[in-house]
Structure formats: C-alpha cells, structure tokens
Amino acid sequence: MAVDQVFEALASRPRREILAYLSAQELTAGDIASRFEMTAPAISRHLSLLEAAGLVSSERRGQYVFYRLNQDSLVNTLTGFAFEICPAAGPLKRESRKLATRKGKA
Amino acid sequence: MAVDQVFEALASRPRREILAYLSAQELTAGDIASRFEMTAPAISRHLSLLEAAGLVSSERRGQYVFYRLNQDSLVNTLTGFAFEICPAAGPLKRESRKLATRKGKA
DNA sequence: TAGATAATTAACTAATACTTTAATTGCTTA
DNA sequence: TAAGCAATTAAAGTATTAGTTAATTATCTA
C-alpha cells in the first residue's frame, strides 16, 4: 500500500519542508539543496524517497533535474486517512464549509 | 512543534491501526494488545508515543487504562498540513463539496 | 574531446527506533 | 496482607535511517 510510503516520507521535517518549497514552484535538485544545511547527496536521497512515495515527480531537462509536487497524491492520502479515522468530524468539516463558501462566491 | 511528533507517530502501520481501532470506541491497553501479534510492552510504547503526540488520551479506571482517540488533534494536524502545502486544491475540495451536500440534505 | 557543472549512487559511520524478556507499579479481592 | 491481573518501565539486542565523503553518470560548452 502506498499509504505506508507516504506516511514514512512525511515523517521527516526536511522532507516536509521540501514539499512546502515545491508547493510554490518547481525547483531543481540543486535549488532545493541550497535551501538546506545538508549535502547534495543527502537531499537527493530525500527526493528519491518522496518520489517513491508518489509525492513528487522529476524530469530531467539538460543538466538539471526539476522536481514538482504531486498535489493530488498528498491530499488524497491525508484526507483519505483522516476520513477513515474520523468520518466527518470537526475542523475538516469547518474547512470544507469555508471552501464551499468560497466556491459559492467565485 | 507538535507537528513533528504527530507525523512521527503516524509513520508506523501498527500505530495507525491503533488509531483506527480507537475511532470506533475507547479500548483498554489490553484490548488493543490482543488485536496485534505483538507483546503488551510493545503496544504500551506505541500508546505512549501516540499520547505524547496528542493523538490519544488515557484514563485509568481501576485496574484498566482506557485509551480514546483525540479526533480534533489528528484532523487539525493533517488538514493544517494539507492546506499549507496546497491551499485549496483537488480532492479535498471535492470532499468538502460532498460534505457540504450532505449537510444540505441533513 | 577535454574540462566543468549537476545529480545520483556507493560505501561507510553514527544515531534512532522497534521488539523482546525481565522487573516494577498499581489496583483488586480473597 | 498476600495473591493475581493489568499495565508500564528497564535493559539489551537488532535493525533501520540519516548523514558524510568519495566515486560515477549525464550533460553542457570551450
């Protein structure tokens, strides 16, 4: 099950920070590495893990490898799990109401 | 930040299964242990970790210690993170629509 | 083609996490 | 108070993870 890999991938602050960086824009492996106090190989491993979990995708363009976030994968897994554990409770419902409202306004 | 502990806690299949069991009803440590092929001390450690992360609460009643799920804590953290990474995207929005619809019907 | 840059893989070390058995604590009841 | 069950804590071993440096692969450019 991919859920295992996703939660494993998320159990690391630097990996979650990488996802946050990628939420704004796609970045090269080097771009990402430069944002951390860690060597490039270490970042490369984190990226492999995130990709294996299906949370990011990579594409080589010339010398560079660009990484981008797979939003759906992340959101599907997290909300899927949240709904499994507590079907329709609390803050998520509130969030949804907010979203629904915004949609109504748009 | 509690987020670290929550994601750490979720990075374990048995711990996620414990949460799933607790989503239906509160259970004693022994009840939970009996559902796994693992010794009681091992389960006890998993429970401690879940409690430290704020995902469950425990209460001793006589000989027994009852555990229950802290739904809000789980949902808050997961949706908080999901929204941080992708503000209003995809399946969560769909989920919310579904919820909003159900609410309309109720 | 040779040299330089980007990125990954390999090999190794250090730190963490998981599980087990054994010992301990808390509560109940005969 | 002693015996017994529930649960946790302690101690110890094993395995996994995260990080480093060194070597390798891929691409670009002079």
UniProtKB/TrEMBL annotation, chains A, B:
<dbReference type="InterPro" id="IPR036390">
    <property type="entry name" value="WH_DNA-bd_sf"/>
</dbReference>
<dbReference type="InterPro" id="IPR036388">
    <property type="entry name" value="WH-like_DNA-bd_sf"/>
</dbReference>
<protein>
    <submittedName>
        <fullName>Winged helix-turn-helix transcriptional regulator</fullName>
    </submittedName>
</protein>
<keyword id="KW-0238">DNA-binding</keyword>
<dbReference type="InterPro" id="IPR051081">
    <property type="entry name" value="HTH_MetalResp_TranReg"/>
</dbReference>
<keyword id="KW-0805">Transcription regulation</keyword>
<keyword id="KW-0804">Transcription</keyword>
<dbReference type="InterPro" id="IPR001845">
    <property type="entry name" value="HTH_ArsR_DNA-bd_dom"/>
</dbReference>
<dbReference type="InterPro" id="IPR011991">
    <property type="entry name" value="ArsR-like_HTH"/>
</dbReference>
<dbReference type="Pfam" id="PF01022">
    <property type="entry name" value="HTH_5"/>
</dbReference>
<feature type="domain" description="HTH arsR-type">
    <location>
        <begin position="1"/>
        <end position="89"/>
    </location>
</feature>
